[in-house]
Design goal:
mainly beta; 6-stranded mixed β-sheet; 2 helices
Length: about 200
């Protein structure tokens, strides 16, 4: 298992999928804390376009999560052009019960210690979302958080977009600058995942 810090929580037996997301900030200036634009991207195609990475006997929950937390970023370059879609905003799609991991890219920020880490703007007393748990990288930075989506809302029956709050601190010298960023989770029932992203010319070169 990669990583020196153990997990503080294990999943319910019903959770067999892990959706891994990287959150990164782009800036118009040289200072990473000025004019920030937050973006999110799945770690692999199975996270970006599918239902997440499946937990197996070989790749168990702990191994998948720890490997992701300590892995280098996997951010695809955005090519400029009139037909290029804009970078993905801060929202994700969940079609099956799963564990969602939000990893912060860059050592200039971390999740706020001893905070909620992630909270929903709406309370779910039935346990749709379990409380978030922190995940430390090999330097002891709270680089990621995970939480469990216990069930998925049928889009025919109620609102399917859930507001979230992520509690993060920007680190500048010995100072901390707390802030809240708010991605959304869109539930799409048991709809099939999107077709994998078509290969770009030259991908196999």
């Amino acid at each position: 298992m990669n990583g020196q810090f153990p997990l503080s929580m294990l999943p319910p037996s019903s959770i067999k999928l892990i959706k891994r997301y990287q959150i990164f900030a782009s800036s118009a200036g040289g200072n990473p804390l000025s004019n920030l634009n937050f973006l999110i991207e799945g770690y692999e195609d199975v996270d970006e376009f599918g239902n997440g990475k499946e937990v197996t006997a070989t790749d168990d929950f702990t191994k998948i999560v720890r490997d992701f937390v300590v892995a280098p970023p996997n951010i695809k370059p955005v090519l400029a052009g009139p037909t290029t879609p804009p970078p993905t905003p801060l929202d994700i799609v969940v079609r099956e019960p799963c564990c969602v991991i939000f990893k912060l890219i860059g050592n200039f920020w971390e999740y706020t210690p001893n905070s909620l880490y992630v909270s929903t703007k709406h309370e779910y007393p039935d346990g749709k979302y379990r409380r978030a748990f922190p995940l430390l990288d090999n330097n002891g930075r709270i680089a990621a958080v995970g939480f469990f989506v216990e069930y998925v809302t049928d889009p025919q029956h109620r609102k399917t977009c859930e507001g979230l709050n992520l509690y993060v601190d920007f680190l500048q010298g010995g100072m901390r600058m707390p802030t809240i960023i708010d991605p959304d989770v869109e539930n799409q029932g048991n709809h099939p995942p999107k077709d994998p992203k078509p290969q770009e010319p030259g991908d196999n070169d």
